[in-house]
Design goal:
alpha/beta; Chitobiase, domain 2; TIM Barrel; Jelly Rolls; 3 domains; eight-stranded parallel β-barrel; globular; GH
Length: about 775
């Protein structure tokens, strides 16, 4: 096998160890696929999120998750999705859509035959100087002589041709593969680079004999901004890991890496004028994000050098080297410095910038203090000296504004400017920062809350709360990057929760992400031109290790790349999945840890077939009403035969919120319309992670009656609180048979939890 074309940095990362399939780990003899639990192990009878029955975990083989390091692995890729072809041959009747390229090109034609890379193959390029050195350094052709003379060979040659007279986009390229030569033509070096990525993908697929199928490709991106955001504040990652991601993101034609450098979790970039930011606020005393947030105020942050402290930061020189490396891969790094909210770490290091003048009191910087602006401008000056990005992200999201309401300095600014609400005070800060960035020829980029109180004249908006912020911005003449959390938050579960490590709810499937299109229909053609592109965001509250980041990022970042590059009419999810399986194999071979897509749970199978039982479509009377935000199908939802899926938010689960004025927060009666012999009453309750606050009940009661007045309690059980396992809990009464017309089911929540939910999909009577 030839191996001439490789990514030059992938050799630093070895192949992953032997990998196992999560689904196959459910090896309890009594596993129940309806509830995803083990019915044999009575005390802890639910599998944990990683697929191992708690009671049997000690006796089973090693889990697929290392609980100490949270290193997550996948199992080897199956080959049943690969195109069948004769060894060393490529049929010209292979559909264009089967070329293994992500993101998929915009025009593809296949021809008979193939080009064979062999020891005598030469490279010709008309690139000069640094550009020539860059590409010859990036691609290396093992044991192949390299030619850069003006003499252009006709056969057995790979040509990289720059032609600035071509009428094409700066990132576009044309690729022609014949039996004699591979030719890439582009207007700029960006285009040459992206053409090489396409060749690399073709070579990785058809490398048995160094052969690449003959084809003609004309390609250019749909959007100019194709980004991924990495949150390094909640959980610090080593620089080597970021270099590694730059390699792969560039391979999939992502051209922007947005780094979330500052937040409450820690300040991650050296600022020479304010050394306490990293000396006092780059480390903390707890690695677990939720435990740290809930641990109280004292000792939240640790000084640099504190034994056992968790965190880290990047020096300015390290960031300059990273920027230089990314630039050679045609990736722009966008730094984010949060303001005015998410700034607790700043006010711990420099409490004079808080309204209270002390740490651990305020969430937002004091806008009424002129020194706050001096601080921010000085920080941004150093940041701009490191990052040449045309965009500087200033956050601007989720400012609570509590401290401003009682701060004399903030109130004076409001009075002096005739502001009528605190949104205008936030806008006051954003406008001043935008003016400062304008002076330095940079664009202010912020989350869509910067619309509150009025948008600065030249601001760029990153729309995350939905599309509406982006729509408003575009309609008022502002550039927009679409990043709605409903589609573009890559820290959500990507498959059903019981088969996944902890993540944000509800799930964001690969299909959900792939089918997103970032230009809303309501925009006019002129307004649509202001949509720069799309960005997927990897927040790390629940992601604690580098391999876990990769597991959440891939393959969903590949879907983001196709949203940003491939024209809408060329997208097809099923064909994308066909191409994806091979790319996942390549990721694993290069030492990455992607989520596998060939054994997805996706749907609870029982939810696909209506359940027939005695209470089907009978009248239901609620003593404790369901919450209007989660009604499912309304009053008849729990007797409609529709079992729920794995997601509480899929419209099949009815939700009940905690109330302390009633004993049973779930309480309903079903009229069977006639005396019936009842052998079973069963109710599914869902349990999801602490962030969702969805719990199983503390007490479950089933009562039967012939007249709806005199009740016979046939089941009254209480349960202990469990916070380490999730799934569906089937609470049920079974017996030899009781004659009754009315069935009453009740469930009591845990009084000491307060903020909690019960979710139910069906009351089954048999």
């Amino acid at each position: 096998m030839f191996s001439y074309l490789i990514l030059s940095t992938s050799s630093h990362y070895g192949r992953p160890p032997e990998i196992l399939n999560l689904k196959r780990k459910i090896n309890c003899a009594e596993f129940d696929s309806e509830t995803a639990r083990c019915t044999k192990c009575e005390e802890n009878y639910f599998i944990n999120p990683y697929g191992v029955c708690e009671k049997q975990k000690a006796s089973t083989e090693k889990s697929t998750v290392n609980y100490d390091t949270q290193e997550i692995f996948s199992n080897p890729v199956h080959h049943h999705h690969d195109c069948d072809h004769e060894h060393g041959k490529h049929s010209n009747d292979i559909p264009d859509s089967q070329l293994p390229i992500i993101p998929y090109p915009n025009s593809v034609k296949l021809y008979p035959g193939n080009f064979t890379i062999q020891a005598s193959t030469r490279v010709y390029t008309n690139l000069q100087g640094d550009d020539k050195a860059l590409f010859l350094n990036y691609i290396y052709l093992e044991e192949l002589p390299v030619s850069s003379t003006p003499f252009e060979l006709e056969k057995n040659v790979i040509k990289l041709l720059l032609d600035d007279t071509l009428d094409m986009n700066d990132e576009a390229y044309n690729l022609l593969v014949t039996q004699d030569a591979i030719t890439i033509k582009a207007k700029t070096t960006k285009g040459i680079f992206y053409g090489i990525q396409t060749i690399l993908q073709l070579y990785q697929k058809y490398d048995d004999e160094g052969e690449i199928p003959c084809c003609e490709i004309y390609d250019s991106p749909a959007f100019e901004y194709r980004g991924v955001m990495l949150d390094v504040s909640r959980h610090f990652v080593p620089l080597e890991f970021i270099y590694k991601q730059i390699d792969m993101l560039a391979h999939f034609k992502i051209n922007t890496l947005h780094i979330h450098l500052t937040d409450t979790g820690g300040w991650r970039i050296e600022i020479k004028q304010y050394p306490l930011l990293t000396q006092k606020a780059a480390y903390r005393n707890e690695s677990d994000w939720n435990r740290w947030c809930n641990s109280g105020l004292d000792g939240h942050y640790n000084d640099t050098g504190t034994p056992g402290a968790y965190g880290g930061f990047y020096t300015q020189d390290q960031m300059r080297e990273l920027v230089s490396y990314a630039t050679k891969k045609f990736i722009n790094i966008v730094p984010e410095i949060e303001m005015p909210g998410h700034s607790e770490e700043v006010m711990y290091a420099y409490p004079e910038y808080s309204c209270a003048g002390q740490p651990y009191v305020n969430h937002d910087l004091c806008v009424g203090n002129p020194d706050t602006f001096t601080f921010l401008c000085n920080v941004l000056t150093e940041v701009m000296d490191i990052f040449p990005s045309p965009y500087i992200h200033i956050g601007g999201d989720e400012a609570l504004k509590y401290g401003w309401k009682t701060c004399p300095k903030c109130l004076k600014v409001m009075q002096d400017n005739n502001f009528t609400d605190f949104d205008q005070l936030q806008s006051y800060l954003i406008k001043k920062i935008e003016a400062f960035l304008d002076e330095h020829n940079r664009h202010l980029l912020g989350w869509d809350e910067i619309l509150e109180g009025g948008l600065p004249p030249h601001a760029y908006v990153m729309s995350w709360t939905g599309e509406q912020g982006g729509i408003i911005a575009a309609q008022t003449g502002h550039h927009v990057v679409m990043s709605p959390s409903l589609y573009m938050y890559l820290d959500h579960y990507q498959d059903e929760f019981f088969a996944q490590p902890d993540a944000r709810l509800p799930p964001r499937t690969l299909e959900n992400i792939y089918n997103y299109y970032p230009v809303p229909d309501v925009l006019t053609p002129e307004e649509a031109k202001l949509i720069l592109g799309v960005q997927g965001n990897v927040w790390t509250e629940f992601i604690t290790s580098p391999s876990h980041v990769e597991y959440m990022m891939y393959p969903r970042a590949m879907a983001v790349s196709e949203i940003g590059w491939t024209q809408k009419n060329n997208k097809n999810y099923n064909l994308f999945m066909d191409r994806l399986h091979h790319e996942i194999q390549n990721l694993i071979a290069k030492g990455y840890f992607p989520h596998r897509t060939d054994n997805l749970y996706l749907n609870r199978q029982q939810s696909l077939v209506p359940k027939k039982h005695l209470a089907l479509n009978k009248k239901v009377t609620y003593t404790a009403p369901y919450n209007p935000n989660y009604p499912a199908a309304g009053d008849g939802a729990l007797v409609d035969g529709q079992l729920g899926g794995w997601n509480f938010d899929d419209g099949t689960w009815q939700g009940f919120y905690y109330r302390n004025d009633i004993e049973f927060q779930f309480d309903l009666t079903i009229d069977l319309e006639e005396i019936t012999n009842i052998h079973k009453v069963a109710v599914n309750f869902m349990r999801q992670s602490e962030q969702a606050r969805i719990y199983w009940p503390q007490r479950f009661v089933v009562s039967l009656s012939s007249d709806n007045v005199n009740w016979n309690t046939v089941l009254d059980e209480t349960y202990d609180y469990v916070n380490t396992i999730y799934g569906l809990s089937l609470k049920k009464y079974t017996g030899d048979g009781v004659s009754a017309q009315y069935v009453r089911v009740q469930a009591k929540m845990f009084d000491d939890l307060q903020d909690q939910w019960l979710f139910v999909d069906e009351v089954v009577v048999e």
